[in-house]
């Protein structure tokens, strides 16, 4: 594997990590909205 290829891999890895963080933040926001919803199915 040459240096150019490993740079591309490192960049793809960083983008993938960022995508995972964005997704986790999005799920956190959804969970907060769901907790604040008075009409939840479980009635809590």
TrEMBL record:
This is Uncharacterized protein. It comes from Bifidobacterium longum subsp. longum. The lineage of its organism: Bacteria, Bacillati, Actinomycetota, Actinomycetes, Bifidobacteriales.
């Amino acid at each position: 594997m040459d240096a150019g290829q490993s740079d591309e891999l490192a960049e793809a890895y960083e983008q993938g990590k960022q995508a995972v963080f964005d997704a986790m933040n999005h799920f956190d926001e959804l969970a907060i909205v769901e907790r604040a919803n008075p009409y939840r199915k479980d009635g809590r």
